Batch of 2 targets.
Target 1
Amino acid sequence: MSCLFCKIVSLEIPAEIVAESELSVAFNDISPQAPTHVLIIPTIHTENAAGLAKMSATITAALFTAADQIASDRGLTGYRTVFNTGADAGQSVFHAHLH
């Protein structure tokens, strides 16, 4: 598969992984747009958040659980989560990912 994020999940491409589980992998963004900018992706491939929502509520919840744990581990008192869905919304890697 030629998906960049699938290659990170399979460890074909290195990433600064900050958390992982059976359902998700979280890593620091290589071009951060904020002081803390982590991408959390499902370990299975689906193109975007809409596809993920249709596929599995359990995996979707796992992404948000990971976000909360990472924020807690980093001592953040607040955080923002974003899914860009589709090129018109700014999605550039077509594997669902939570910022």
Target 2
Amino acid sequence: MTKIAIIYHSGYGHTKKLAEAVLSGAKQSKAECHLISVNDVKDETWALLASMDGIIFGSPTYMGGVAADFKKFADASSKPWFKQEWKDKIAAGFTNSSSMNGDKLSSLQYMWTLSQQHSMIWVGTGMMPANSKAAKRNDINYLGAFSGLMAQSPSDSTPEEGPLPGDLETAKLFGLRIATVTQQFVKGRT
């Protein structure tokens, strides 16, 4: 069975809700999935991550980059980096901010760089953007992200109000894609 970990930080609950949607999508592939907050990382978490076939990173975008708690986790990953324990695992990332742009790409690029430091194989969304005149805010991939999942939650919203349904559905499809690609990678293409 393919094993996927979704490791994330959420400051206000919005990114946790997004992580749960990614998890829901990944589970559709019948993969063994683990949802882990960076605040809950313990010694045994590092062993669990080393045993995964794929790791999906998630963080809100604050001030144009990943949250400090996520960065602390990334810095602590130097021990598995030294042994290249994540080498050739599938990697992907997602982020959420209150603005439509909010420099979310900077957070995804940070996660991509982290994955490359670990010699991982990055997978993007694989989704076309909702960019026609008929597009609506709750369409799939309304924010038009390719390198990773981007979502938006209004700054005055509760986690019950944001991310919006279209972003959550995009997150489910993203989770399914990453799990499916990971399965293909583990099994080998026929």
